[in-house]
Structure formats: structure tokens, C-alpha cells
What we know:
It is a single chain. By secondary structure, the chain is α+β, with helices and mostly antiparallel strands. The protein has helices at 5-19, 27-56, 61-74, 78-95, and strands spanning 97-98, 104-118, 139-143, 148-158, 162-171, 185-194, 198-205, 235-247, 250-262, 280-293, 298-312, 315-331, 334-344, 355-357, 363-365, 367-380, 383-394, 404-419, 422-435, 439-453. A 16-stranded antiparallel barrel has the order 2-4-5-6-7-8-9-10-11-12-13-16-17-18-19-20. Helix 1 packs antiparallel against helix 2, helix 2 runs antiparallel to helix 3 and helix 2 packs antiparallel against helix 4. The longest helix has 30 residues, at 27-56. It starts with a helix and ends with a strand. Residues 1-25, 59-68 and 70-75 have low confidence and may be disordered.
Amino acid sequence: MLKKSPVLCLLLLWTAVQAFPQTSPDMQKILERLDKLEEENQKMLDEIRQLRSELKQGQTPQDAGAAADATAAATPPDKERIDVLESRTADLDQSKISASQRFPISLTGMLLFNAFENGRSGGGAEYPTNASLTASPATDGATVRQTIVGLTFNGPNLPFGGKADGSIYLDFFAGSTAPFDDLIHIRTAALNLVWKNTTLTVGQDKPIISPRDPTSFAQVGVSPLTDAGNLWDWNPQARIERRFLFDDDTGLKAQAGVYETTETYGPGLPAEYEDTLERNRPAYQGRLEFYHGNDRRRIEIAPGFSTGATRVAGQSVESTIASFDALFRPIPLLEFTGEGFDGKDVAGLGALGGFNILPSGAVIPIHSRGEWGQIAVFPAPRLSFHFYAGEQYDRPSDIAPSDIQRNFVYAGNMMYKLAPNVIAALEAAQARTRYFGSLLRLNNHYDLALAYLF
């Protein structure tokens, strides 16, 4: 019986192949486990040969038989192993979402409920990014429009040892006309072709030079500190990343790509220039990140650049930006993050500024600078505090009357995990917006959030 074990394994392998469709995503796992079964049978044969050798050297047949019986008893029957594998395969089929191409897709996201209150300079918006120049009634309300739904997938193997994966995340923050103000909106999307040291990505995301965000459940429909130092617009792009590993905890990431800008002009472009503005333009961006450390202690520093142009009124306006972002975690309980930029014509990346059309018809870029920073404290596993602030400053000589000269926002929040995937958060923020001519407006925002992560 034991001598025929390899034949038995081949028969079992043929039976398993016939029992599952050739296109099943779990077929490879079944074959791998059957290979392990054959290896175990081979080990059993080797042990029997060793027993026979020892028998020839003086063991009694009774001793050899007892040893062989003990070895066989320690190994479950082959049929039982196949049954276990089939049961596990069935469990996998029930626990995943299948795509038409037979690759698993995972559903993820966050159900987010917000109750909020705005001051009289909120401009009527649920989540204003700056204080309005004109006063309006204070507003309050509740919404689930900032809920996020995402799909992630792991695709097939690629040539030269690569792997494909991707994701898409949606929210309901696109609409603006009540009561149907919950239109689906694409936030980010990515198709990643990943090799050991190189990743090629196409999709939609923040600018390459601005990957970080403050932590907030109050402002999710747009990135926190929009118009206050955070370049954030989620736009189509293609990028490549090359990784250089110096040791287990130290390395360098070089990123470069093309990002599609969204060109805007202050409160509104004069009607005579509407048809001359190219609403979307390419920007060429690069970023170099050095990192050292692990999950407990870590430092990351990354300079970057962006260059492009806005075309309006038959003229080309140069857009150039230098950036710097960083993370510093000296101990597990404390973390600092932030970004800064300096440049001209930065509005295409989701900021204030941009360009100005003079009475003579000449178009000039607006010089801008911005920065933001956050301190995060984690005093307990379920509790965290986040304090962040940011500003954008536009050069007064470049802007038009009624434009924003400086927008400064600061906020603080507390988050508590009611369960591993249920988080309650309370946040307070104030926007201090200075318009051309030193007109200062303030707006307070208070938010209570309850998030269910799935």
C-alpha cells in the first residue's frame, strides 16, 4: 500500500483538477497544497526505508511494524485532507467578491455622519474653506454626504515578477442643489503595476508633490486646509516611483509624473475671456523622499517641484512650484507632519491665487506661498488628539480687488474609538481670511462626527 503512494497522489491530483473549473482563482492554491501532500508522502516513504535499514541492522519485525504503524497513524488519510482543502476553498468563495475576470475585489470605506454649525461668514456652505467677505445667517445641520465607498482589487501577475493591484474611492459630495445633493463623486482611483523596486501608477489622486493631509472627520469632501496651504485637487495623473533600499529601515523614493491641473480664476473669469481659458493643462512634477525608521520611530523628508503653464487670452502664464513635506515621529505617542510650497500660478493644484488679468489685457501670475503643520498625540490606544493649522499668502501687488490676500485656518479635534471600527470625533476650527485692502473676516466651524469603518 505504501509503495503506491506516489500513484495515489497522481490520481488525487487528477481528481482535484477535474473537480474544479480551469478558470477558478483557487485552482493554484489546491495544486500547491496537493504538492505539499505528495512531499509528505515522500517523507513517509523515506522513513519506512530508514526503518527497513534499521531492521536489517538488528531490529525485530515487530518493532519495525510498530514504528510504521505509528507513522501512518500520525498522518491523516489522503481523502480527509482533500475534504479539508475543498471546505477551505468554499469558505474563500463565500468571503470575497468575485470580478468577471475571477480576481477578488474587497469592499471598503467609511459611513460618516456629521452634525455641524457654522458662523455668519460661512457663505452658506456646509464646510467652508475660508471666511466669506459678505455676512450671511449662521447655519447648522447634519449630513452623510462625506461617506466614502471604496473597492480594492489584486490583479494578475505581470512579466518579470510584477503584480497588478488597484482601488477606487467614491463619496457623495458632488451635488449642490437641495434636496438632491448627494451625487456620487470620484475621489481617488489607482491602477498600480508593481515590481520589486518600481511602481507605475495611473489614476486620480492629489498632486505628486502634496501627498499628505491633516487628520479630520470634519472636512472629508475636500482635503482639510484646502485654500490654507494644502495643495489637494484629486485629478487624473500618471506617475512612476523608483525605490532604493539602503537597509531594512532606510531608503529613498523617487517619484515623477504628469498631473492634470484644473485652471481657475478668482471669483469668476470676465466673460470676454471665458472661451480663451484652457480649463485643464499638464503639469510635470517630481518628488524625492528620504525615510528612516519603523512604525514606532520614523522620519520622512521630501522636496518636490511642479512646472506647467496656464493658457488664457492668447497668452501663456508660467506655473512653477517648489515644495517640501515631512513626517517626524520621535516616539509612538507623538507625531509631526506638514508641508510647504512657494511658487506662482498655483491655483491649478487646488489652491487660491492663479493668475490676474490687468486692465491692459496683460496676464500675470500670482505669486503665492503656503504651509501647514499638524501635531498628533496618542495618549491611549483608543484616544487621539490632532492640532493643525495652515495658511496661504498671495502677494498683494498681483491680486485683484476683492481677492483673498491671506487665508489662515487652525483647528483641533479629539477622536475616540468606541470599537475597533467605530470612531467618534469632535472638532472646532476657525478661518481667518484677509481680503485685499486688509478686510478681515472670521468664521467658526464646529463638527461632531460618528464614523463606521468597513
